[in-house]
Amino acid sequence: MRVLLHTCCGPCALYPLTSLRAEGVDVTGFFFNHNIHPYQEYVRRRDAAQQMADLEGMPLVLRDEYRLEEFLANVAAEPDKRCGYCYASRLDAVAAAAREGGFDTFTSSLFYSRYQNHELMRRKAEESAARYGVQFLYRDFRPGWQEGIRRSKELGLYRQQYCGCVYSEKERYCR
Q1: Is 165 among the annotated ligand-binding positions?
Q2: Does the annotation list 86 as a binding residue?
Q3: Which of 63, 87, 99, 149 is deepest in the core (most CB within 10 A)?
C-alpha cells in the first residue's frame, strides 16, 4: 500500500512514518502548511521536515507555498473556528495530491498530536477523501508521543513551540 502522509513538521512525522513502515506501508511525505506564522517559523518547519525526510529516507513532496493572506482571509472573521478551516485546507491538499499521484490512501502527522481535535480532523479528512475519491487511512498516532519526542531530539530536529498559526502563537506566548 502506498500512502501520502501530510507532514506538518519533521518531529511530528517521525512516529507516524515509523509506525506505518512497521505495517509494511510505502510512505511518501507531503508538506503543505500555509497556516504557519511568521515566515521564519514556516521556513524552520519546512526545513526540519526536509531534514527528517532525508535522514529517514522518506520521499517528500514540498508544496512550498506561504499563503498567509489566504489563511487569514478564511479565519479572521471567526478565529475560534480556524482549526476547522486549517485542517480542511491541508487535508484537501493532501487528498488531491494523493489522487493525482496514484496513492492508495492518505493520512496526516496531525493525528500524532495530543493537542489537536482528532474528531474534527477525522471528519475533515473523511470529507476530503469523499471529495477527491481517494481513501483516508485513519491511525491514532498519539500513543507514540514520547517516542516521537525522543527521536526528534536524538536527530537534532527543530522542535516548534506552538501549533503554527498566529492565533496559536498568541495563545502560547501571551499566557
Answers
A1: no
A2: yes
A3: 87
Residues 104-146 have pLDDT tens digits of: 999 999 999 998 999 999 999 999 999 999 999 999 999 999 9
12 is an annotated ligand-binding site residue: no
Residue-wise pLDDT for 39-83, tens only, equals 898 999 999 999 999 999 999 999 988 888 888 887 777 767 877
Q: Is the confidence at residue 15, as pLDDT, over 80?
A: yes
All structural domains of the chain: 2-173 (3.40.50.620)
Sheet holding 60-62, edge to edge: 60-62, 26-31, 2-6, 105-108, 135-136
Q: Is 9 annotated as a binding residue?
A: yes
Coil vs helix vs strand at 62 = strand
C-alpha 103/C-alpha 93 separation (Å) is 13
